[in-house]
Amino acid sequence: MSAAFSLAFDAFGKLVVTLADGTQHVGAVVARAFPIAAPDQVISILSAEGKELAWVEHLNDLPTHERDIVAQALQGREFMPEILRLDGVNSFSTPSVWRVQTSRGPAQLVLKGEEDIRRLSATRLIVADAHGVQFLIRDLPSLDRHTRKLLDRFL
């Protein structure tokens, strides 16, 4: 399947979108419509001015080259580590310091209050730390027993 556009990075690392009619847009931005619920679906490619240039229903619909560039552009734009394990907390009252293992390595976060844990669905949570970094818990039931037990104290 060929896309109605092509993607590349210029010498300055800016995303360049070339549309089917040959027009080029330098400094384009790639954004997910539903970054947590459906990260590989509904992706928009916008001009530097915010005008939508292309719409992708599913990441797998793109040719390999474009899919790789979209993934690279998204990685540079998004930062939401996923909590894989909760090693410990210094206190069950807030504020508390959590020691966690994330998809990006070990980390510590400061939980100011229980309201900084938002439930997105029955199994998905977002934890915001005192510095504004958001951590994702993608599938609560799949976490180890120790982690779930610690989280239950805050939920």
Short recap of the structure:
The protein is mainly beta and 155 residues long.
Keywords:
mainly beta, 3-stranded antiparallel β-sheet, 2 helices, 14% helix, elongated
Written account of the structure:
With 155 residues, this protein is mainly β. Helices cover 14% and strands 40% of the residues. The chain has helices spanning 64-77, 145-152; strands at residues 5-9, 15-19, 24-26, 29-32, 41-46, 52-58, 83-89, 96-102, 105-111, 117-119, 125-128, 134-137. The strands form 4 sheets. A 3-stranded antiparallel sheet has the order 1-2-3. It has a 3-stranded antiparallel sheet with strand order 4-5-6. A 3-stranded antiparallel sheet has the order 7-8-9. It starts with a strand and ends with a helix.
* Percent of residues in helices: 10-25%
Q: How many β-strand stretches?
A: 12
**Average pLDDT figure:** 90
State the low-pLDDT regions, or none. Answer: none
Overall geometry comes to: elongated
Query: Which class best fits the helix and strand makeup?
Result: mainly beta
Secondary-structure element pattern, one letter each: EEEEEEHEEEEEEH
Distance between the termini: 46 Å
Rg, Cα atoms, Å: 19 Å
Strand arrangement within the widest β-sheet reads: 1-2-3
Beta-strand portion reads 35-45%
Tally of contiguous helical segments: 2
**Biggest sheet layout:** 3 strands, antiparallel
Layout of helices and strands:
Elements: E1 5-9, E2 15-19, E3 24-26, E4 29-32, E5 41-46, E6 52-58, H1 64-77, E7 83-89, E8 96-102, E9 105-111, E10 117-119, E11 125-128, E12 134-137, H2 145-152
Antiparallel strand pairs: 1-2, 2-3, 4-5, 5-6, 7-8, 8-9, 10-11, 11-12
